[in-house]
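Structure tokens
________________
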Amino acid sequence: MASSFNEALESGSAASDRAEKMALYAFLVGRWEMDGIVYREGGAKYEARGEIHAAWALEGRAIQDVWIFPGVFYGTTLRVFDPGIDAWHILWSDPLKQYYTRQIGRARGADIVQEGTGDQGVPLRWRFTEIKPASFHWLGERSAGDGAWTLEAEFFARRA
């Protein structure tokens, strides 16, 4: 029996029965600092520094992270691999802004692409690109449904 919530939630590594598939997001585990840009309507930009903390969770069958970007969001992602669809369920929750999304994540070449809809049914695409052991670039895009994507945010993360 776990003696605390953190002990029950956190795991030291990926579950052995799916470790190979869990490797897709394994790079994220750890502590990160990031420089971010949020593109607002009308061309205004909000730039700030933030942080990311990620760990193996739920007996190594998930990765949970916390993304903190002052003035914009303070939320958590639960990333769970589903062997039945050979992809990841991505559940984002931001209680600060009351914003929630559900996406499906898969490798696409050297990138990771998460696709789904926002809480108002708008198509979203969130991508991890330029993934290296000590850095990555994250892009958040929204579609008006016409096939074109609009960049809403990007984060340049480096291992802390």
